Amino acid sequence: MKHRLAILVISSICLLLSGFVHAEPEVKLQTSYYAVQGESARALRASMNTARPKGMAHDAYTKWHVSWSYTWHQMNGNYALQSSKVSVAITMTLPQWTPPKDTDKQLVERWQRYITALRRHENGHAVIGTQAAREIEKKLQTLPAAPSTEALKDLIERTCQQVLTEARDKEKNFDETTNHGIKEGAQFP
Asked: Domain for residue 9, yes or no?
């Protein structure tokens, strides 16, 4: 189940971003779960509130980190990027509930609707991180030459940080617009 979910998430990200024609960043996706228990909606809510990892303000959280490396070469007295490698590490943390035997079917269905909406919202965060990695790869491929290695390194760093700042702003707007997924159905009970 977890393996199929990871493939589905990565496939979804690739489909959403298939308009780009530049080099592909490496995408590493990890999903972790925290166990919740209960036989009622109220008990499940209480369990999520206490079982979620320390520091998590919401039921789920997706963290992404884009990294890059590169090589450069000297060309006609200037320094230019020769190659680059960009990757994004995505960690998604979600609640996981195994319904006890004889649990009310309506509660199970309600949980399934909730967890589907929650996962869809968290996938939105993963897409934003992946888009940032793709944008960095694209921008690195089109950087002009610089008069020194320091100037080239500074240009690379400023370019990458600008993309990350824009992505973090996009992510903040995404959470504000969706009220952290609540408007998408990610609310329980």
From this structure: yes
- When divided into structural domains, the chain yields a total of 1
154 token code pair: 């500074």
The pTM of the full predicted model, rounded to 2 decimals, is: 0.85
Determine the Cα–Cα distance for residues 189 and 48; give it in Å rounded to an integer. 11
Could you give the angle at the alpha carbon of 140 between the alpha carbons of 139 and 141, nearest 5°? 90
Q: Is residue 189 part of a domain?
A: no
Give 103-131 pLDDT, tens digit per residue.
999 999 999 999 999 999 999 999 999 99
Range of the domain at 77: 2-184
Q: Give the per-residue pLDDT at 142.
A: 95
Quote the CA–CA distance of 92 and 87 in Å, as a whole number. Answer: 16
CA 115 to chain centre: 17
Q: How many CA atoms lie within 13 A of 66 on its CB side?
A: 25
Q: How high is the pLDDT of residue 1?
A: 54
